[in-house]
Design goal:
The protein is an all-alpha fold. It has 3 helices and no strands. It has helices at residues 2-15, 20-37, 41-147. Helix 1 packs antiparallel against helix 2. It is rod-shaped. The model has no long low-confidence stretch (mean pLDDT 90).
Length: 148
């Protein structure tokens, strides 16, 4: 078919008084150009096969993206759950912090009370020991005066 086209063009160029060698050069240039730039039926069939393969790959990618979307949705739900759990833990830690603060205040108050009680016991002991010393001194002086 291409050969018939080239003969027809060659004849047409000759009819319009293009010299034979120039007409042949034009036709040869067209043949070379068409051989390198135009696709053959085999080229098109090969492209069709490539496009079919690409369609299959795109379909597989589409399925993979759908699976990833599902996984991301699951991760999003997991993160939302974790966010709720962290918020609950934050509330529990706040309660613990206030409980520890109250316990610390109670322990400080109890420690102050214990220090006060120790101070009272110390004063009481000093008074008792002082009294015992006075009584012992009195007994000693009485015993000495009796012995003379």
């Amino acid at each position: 078919m291409a050969v018939d086209l080239f003969h027809a063009l060659y004849d047409a160029l000759l009819r319009i008084n293009v010299p034979s060698d120039r007409a042949r050069t034009v036709i040869e240039a067209m043949e070379r150009d068409m051989a390198s730039t135009l696709a053959t039926k085999g080229d098109l069939l090969s492209l069709k096969g490539d496009f079919t393969a690409l369609r299959g790959e795109f379909a597989a990618l589409k399925d993979e993206f759908a699976a990833l979307r599902g996984e991301f949705a699951a991760l999003k739900n997991d993160f939302a759950t974790l966010r709720g759990e962290f918020a609950a833990l934050k509330g529990e830690f706040a309660l613990l912090k206030s409980d520890v603060a109250r316990l610390d205040e109670r322990m400080d108050a109890r420690l102050m009370d214990i220090r006060y009680q120790i101070e009272l016991q110390k004063k009481s002991l000093i008074i008792w020991l002082g009294s015992a010393q006075v009584v012992a001194s009195g007994l000693l002086f009485t015993a000495l005066s009796l012995l003379r």
